[in-house]
Amino acid sequence: MTSVWKRLQRVGKKASKFQFIASYQELVLECTKKWQPDKLRVVWTRRNRRMCSKLHSWQPGIKNPYRGMVVWPVPENIDISVTLFKDANADEFEDKEWTFVIEGENKGHRKVLASADINLKRFASPTLTQTDLTLKLKPLSVKVVEATLKLSLSCVFIREGKATDEDMQSLASLMSVKPTDIGNLDDFNESDEEEDKKSVTATASGSDGGPSSLAVHSRPPLPIAPRPSPRRSRHPLSTTPVQSEIQPSPGPSPQPSPRSKHKKSANPVLPEA
Known about the structure:
- This protein has 273 residues and is of the alpha+beta class.
- The chain has a domain at 14-163: C2 domain (Immunoglobulin-like, Sandwich).
- The protein is built from four helices and ten strands; from the N terminus they run αββββββββββααα.
- The model is unreliable at 171-193, 209-217 and 260-266 (pLDDT under 50).
């Protein structure tokens, strides 16, 4: 969504692609007492793009051992490709800032020491230009007192086009779009359909006379909660008496009592003469 929104904002604008080349010459770094950096590097960065120089040893000064420098006998060149945008009727480009960061590294651990921002639209030109710069960096660590970077910045014009063209999109803008953490819902739908097919197949095989142990259930049956006893329940759910579902078993048929037998035998039937 971020890239789509940026494209909509750039509709009707012009885009120009440039190549900027930074040639590092000298780095001066003054630190507080009781601390000295080991090796330093210069990072030219914007968002997720990082263009790093090589690691160079920091050399302390003779008069002040806590004020040292890094000198490049041969300038180290770092180049980047940048797209600048402007309105159709505007004379200058929109702002685009890149940052020079000084990082110290000691035993594999990196630490940001100082930084300085530059607006590249100030150095953009349709003709080849080269500008010498002395940047005073802002300390980003309590151990840094002052930092200065000397370099030359060159600009080369590449081409011009519409802001919505694919080849004119800024690489930093594309890399700044992070992938979403939401999964694809189609994957979950496919897994549910596969489970349904498995359960239907298992049910059909069980109805054909196969062993019931081979039936596959997609979900385990829910446990049946026991019914509370009406005698032990302190808070009955309803006042209606619970009727027992157990029917009494029929008792044995009544047998004649011995007295009734005696009465019958007291009046014997006489035979007819």
